[in-house]
Amino acid sequence: MWTCAPSRADGQAKGGESSGKIILSAxxxxxxxxxxxxxxxxxxxxxxxxxxxxxxxxVREHNNxxxxxxxxxxxxKVANHRIADLEQNEKVRN
Length: 94
Hints:
By secondary structure, the chain is mostly helical. Helix content is 80%, strand content 0%. The chain has 1 helix and no strands. The chain has one helix at residues 19-93. The mean pLDDT is 86.
């Protein structure tokens, strides 16, 4: 079985390195990795927040349009009724 740093009875790893140095190196590597993950996560969160804001804006615009459609339909109904009345009056005159 292969091991990274086999332990010896005198507390020295292979190559004369102490197990404390190996542990310290592993802790430093882990901390650097953690910092990298946190930075990447914060950037990803910023992108997600921006996309969410854009989507919220689009939904609000759509909701505003959806509120206005019935008003426009009613105005068209009134305009069509007026046109029909004008056409009827024109027929009566001729």
